[in-house]
Amino acid sequence: MARPLNRVRRQLMQVLLLSTYDLGHQPFSLASPAAKLRTAGASVTCNDLAIDDLNEKAVREAGLIALYLPMHTATRLSVALLPRLKELNPEAHIAFYGLYAPLNAEYLKSIGGDSFIGGEFEDGLVEIYVSVAAGDTLSSEPQISTAKQIFDQPFRDDLPSLDRYAHLNLGNGTTKTVGYTEASRGCKHVCRHCPVVPVYNGRFRIIPADIVLRDIRQQIDRGAEHISFGDPDFFNGPSHAMTIVKALHAEFPNVTYDATIKVEHLLKQAELLPILKDTGCLFITTAVESVEEEILHLLDKGHSQEDFKRAADLVQNAGLTLSPTFVPFTPWTTKEGFLHLLETLAELNLIENVAPIQLAIRLLIPNRSYLLELPEMQPHLQGYDQEALSYKWRNPDESVEALCIEVQEIVEASARDSLSRQKTFAEIYEVTLAACGRTNQASPDFSTLPTMAIPSMSEPWFCCAEPTQEQLSRL
Known about the structure:
This protein is of the alpha/beta class.
């Protein structure tokens, strides 16, 4: 139900943009709307709680507080933060924006949210600001827009310095300061488990190349030596992507970059891989998810196990590093299938390329997921968990559930004890052999496999973790 905003009228120039977690990046999605709001006349403060403590003064003075929800972890943290925001400023208009905002609008509204924007959100935030400034009554219905927007150069002046964010490990003991930007949003594909799909429904929108390059320049001026492109798929628009990286390399030949590209696109655009290498690409993240054909079909991934192997060869032959990601535990996962995943990674010499957390991820089913429309999903669902913001499910094979827990414990201990990826992989392989009943089969000596320097981010690519106590303490 819409409501009048009386006191907000007196605070119309103050806007607070909040991010709780964005995978270790300086948030583009604070900097981009900050620029548009400033153009509209707002006085904007950006507060990244992944790095800094909550700016209580900015909370008290804000007429509009907007929280960025790009993923599950950020949403859980924002929900935990909301009571404190309401206590400090009970009359501010609370907006949520990003992929998870419209998907969870009903729940967010029940705990005090006022507006919910998904998709292309900059213009929507400006509209809310203008309405709040005028004291207008606003609708609380969730808004999703995939309309084309005019972008301003992102405003990063009041965000923490880049050296406080995740850095790039080159694998040889040296590091690089990382900048982050986006060249496009949304995706042409409709993988059933992906949270992008319920918002964009197979659409994607580009950010003009001149805006992307201006954003990169300002980050390089502030110390960035490597740029991470955060597009859901960099090759949704390959011509657009290549225009940007060629211009980047021509102007800054020593600056490197990474991008995320589907297996399907790596195969279709194989001729572009050498150009990525020549223009400074160090590694490519690709969402493989599984090597079990049935699971790949159910997720509608658009590739097969053999496609993954071909893509891995193409990327490696181009002199690039492949960083595959997985969702290894699903309602359809088998123990032998998980063992086959481990054997495939060893066969392709990708053990060092895979962050251990990627071997422990359990399928997340958020509200409005396309997985809920899948008949094969229905027998495994156990209801919606409001607090966890996801549907509960269980594998019919309890020994698979037990293996998942065991793998997660190994990964947690590995992170705590700073074990190598190779040693962690070996421990996971050993418990998987035991789970498969192969107690008489000796584990291979993975230490004999060839090794090479693998560039990787200091914070692994992972967006559906439980909030940590350190994260919660900043709230």
